């Protein structure tokens, strides 16, 4: 693996080329367990680096403010049709630059500053843009939050209903960034109907699982579906908004001209490729394998004495509370990184520690599943995590180095898509 894979970049800017090459090596040799990360295919990488980068295309297919859009219109229309077919929705907008702008467009489409909005609290597993205080959404709107039960780590839908009927929010968000359990979209839909609220499913983490039939779809239950296009969907860094036909104009107007100018056409092309790949039988097998691996990994961690929020997982994500191990999440995450295992430290529900120094770590199985690891490998992964956490508690750098060598050996046997080992 070397910068020679990018000859023009190497010739023009060897310093930057060296950084890219180093990242290629890092991604190839490490076990990536961050649940929001994945490997895209070579086809997605190629589509994302095409001459579509050179075009400005403000507007929508057939309604642009620039000429010369004959091919761009076809690219975007293709991505739209593939999104509609894959997720079973009336309308899709593939222009949002990322997940946060996509969610902001939902606010712009349906709410006014000062309106009440409701979402899962950030420390409980929600997202910043669901009305949390430090986000613009919590500054411009009145955010109220629901959480999970302390005894189960699960959403109490009766409590959510009671809160929604008391607050009557304009928007209700379901979904988040650290939710290891299945989201009951039908239950949220009934709550939103009673409260007179617009229901938004933020499925950024689980979009690929939905596309592959490994998680229930929100399409028949919610007003708007917001998602990123990477994570489990294995596309480029972008986003989509999907909705019922009655909301199509409001959503499109909010994205452009409400929040954005010209779309990133090269990203749209990458999204189109990823959606095509996600419609294949092999992707269905992948999505189910992600869940199977996560469940197997959770079981192996429980056997090794780890405390998992909600006791396990239904999807791709596992949230570990390290309080019982006497190792803070940040210390564990950094030790795991030195061992070649990439995770992120994360708050856990009712965490007494601060967000930048929390009690937990968040892990997931999308990336390792993309590399071809299966349930038989999950006890090995759990053992590495256990040994690394123990080493972190003891300050044993030799143990971490030994784990890293083992990780590198296994990764060499499972090349990543779009990242061939030389």
From TrEMBL:
Mind telling me which residues the site (Plays an important role in substrate specificity) is annotated on? 230
Question: Required co-factor?
Answer: pyridoxal 5'-phosphate
Compartment(s): Cytoplasm
- Database matches in Pfam families: SHMT
Q: Which reaction does it catalyse?
A: (6R)-5,10-methylene-5,6,7,8-tetrahydrofolate + glycine + H2O = (6S)-5,6,7,8-tetrahydrofolate + L-serine
Q: Residue positions of the PTM N6-(pyridoxal phosphate)lysine?
A: 231
Domain of life of the source: Bacteria
Recorded family membership: Belongs to the SHMT family.
| Assembly notes | Homodimer.
Record's protein name: Serine hydroxymethyltransferase
Name the species this protein comes from. Streptomyces spororaveus
Supply the source organism's classification.
Bacteria, Bacillati, Actinomycetota, Actinomycetes, Kitasatosporales
Gene from which the chain derives: glyA_3
């Amino acid at each position: 693996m070397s910068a020679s894979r990018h000859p023009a970049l190497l010739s023009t800017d060897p310093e930057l080329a060296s950084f890219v090459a180093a990242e290629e090596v890092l991604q190839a040799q490490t076990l990536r367990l961050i649940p929001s990360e994945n490997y895209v295919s070579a086809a997605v990488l190629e589509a994302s680096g095409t001459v579509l980068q050179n075009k400005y295309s403000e507007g929508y297919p057939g309604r642009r403010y620039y000429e010369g859009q004959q091919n761009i219109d076809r690219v975007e229309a293709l991505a739209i049709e593939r999104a509609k077919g894959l997720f079973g929705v009336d309308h899709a907008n593939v222009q949002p630059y990322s997940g946060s702008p996509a969610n902001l467009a939902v606010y712009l489409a349906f709410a006014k500053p000062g309106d009440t909005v409701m979402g899962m609290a950030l420390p409980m597993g929600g997202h910043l843009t669901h009305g949390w205080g430090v986000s613009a959404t919590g500054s411009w709107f009145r955010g109220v939050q629901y959480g999970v039960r302390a005894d189960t780590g699960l959403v109490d839908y009766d409590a959510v209903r009671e809160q929604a009927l008391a607050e009557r929010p304009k928007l209700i968000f379901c979904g988040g960034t650290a939710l290891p359990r299945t989201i009951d979209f039908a239950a949220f839909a009934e709550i939103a109907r009673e409260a007179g609220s617009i229901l938004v499913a933020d499925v950024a983490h689980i979009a690929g699982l939905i596309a592959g039939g490994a998680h229930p779809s929100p399409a028949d239950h919610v007003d708007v579906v917001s998602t990123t296009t990477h994570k489990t969907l294995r596309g480029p860094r972008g986003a989509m908004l999907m909705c019922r036909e009655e909301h199509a104009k409001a959503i499109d107007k909010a994205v452009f001209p409400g929040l954005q100018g010209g779309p990133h056409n090269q990203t749209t092309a990458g999204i189109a490729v990823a959606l095509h790949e996600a419609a294949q039988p092999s992707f269905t097998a992948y999505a189910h394998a992600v869940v199977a691996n996560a469940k197997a990994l959770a079981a192996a961690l429980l056997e090794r004495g780890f405390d998992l929020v909600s006791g396990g997982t239904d999807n791709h994500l596992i949230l570990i509370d390290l309080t019982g191990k006497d190792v803070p999440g940040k210390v564990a995450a950094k030790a795991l990184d030195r061992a070649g295992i990439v995770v992120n430290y994360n708050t856990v529900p009712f965490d007494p520690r601060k967000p930048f120094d929390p009690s937990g770590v968040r892990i997931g199985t999308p990336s390792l599943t993309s590399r071809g690891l299966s349930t038989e490998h999950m006890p090995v992964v759990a053992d590495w995590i256990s040994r690394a956490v123990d080493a972190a508690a003891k300050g044993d750098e030799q143990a971490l180095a030994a784990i890293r060598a083992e990780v590198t050996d296994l990764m060499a046997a499972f090349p990543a898509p779009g990242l061939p080992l030389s």
